[in-house]
Amino acid sequence: MRTRLKTGGADHRPPRDSNAQKEPARRAPGHAEGARRSGMTQEIVFETGLPVALLRAREAVMFHMRPILRAHGFTEQQWRVMRKLHPSVPIDKTTLSSRATLLMPSLLRILRDLEEMELIRLVSSARNPRLSRVILSAKGAAAVARTSADIERAMKAVRTRIGEASVAQLLELLQTVESRLTGFSLP
């Protein structure tokens, strides 16, 4: 289901023939911004389907986090890895992949980059020397501390804007969705 919201100036399109079939709405990236600058009418299409609504909510939050991550030299994916690591407790790559919600090939590329930046160290497993585990370096721990402070300030503002009760309710609903759909197969 879609809801349309018109923005901008007056609609300059000719009236539609009521018997004609409607064309599906097509939007190119950046189209809305160009329409706003030129004064053209722009229709914003809001999807009410669950997957798109979840993506839109995520993007609304991440819009405020990305500049902070960029200022600290991290991509979103690198930050998802860094914040799951500890300076004294090594973690195996499979567990890290799950906790950071990254596929293993992506995680391995990110770990290589973080190791080159000297933010992490790979240490051999005590039980199996062929396996390596991941740990924050001192430089990485300092970077996480600095970035976390700025992210926490931004998240506090976001939570205040949304409302603490709404955030708590949303987190509870998201946990319900995840738990009910994990392992679920469509008939």
Note down, in words, how this protein is organized.
α2 (50-71) packs across α6 (138-162) and α6 crosses α7 (164-181). Mean pLDDT is 83; it is low at 4-15 and 22-37. The chain is globular. It folds into two domains: 1-10 and 26-48, no CATH class; 62-164, Winged helix-like DNA-binding domain superfamily/Winged helix DNA-binding domain (Arc Repressor Mutant, subunit A). Strands 3-5-4 form a three-stranded antiparallel beta sheet. By secondary structure, the protein is of the alpha+beta class. Helices cover 53% and strands 13% of the residues.
Give the gist of this structure.
Helices cover about 55% and strands about 15% of the residues.
CATH fold descriptor of the largest domain:
Arc Repressor Mutant, subunit A
Give the tally of β-strands. Answer: 5
CATH architecture of the largest domain: Orthogonal Bundle
Q: Which sequence of SSEs, written as H and E, runs from N to C?
A: EHEHHEHHEEHH
Q: What does the radius of gyration come to? A: 23 Å
Apparent shape? globular
Mind telling me the CATH superfamily name of the largest domain? Answer: Winged helix-like DNA-binding domain superfamily/Winged helix DNA-binding domain
CATH class of the largest domain: Mainly Alpha
Q: Strands of the biggest beta sheet: in what spatial order?
A: 3-5-4
Query: Whole-number average pLDDT?
Result: 83
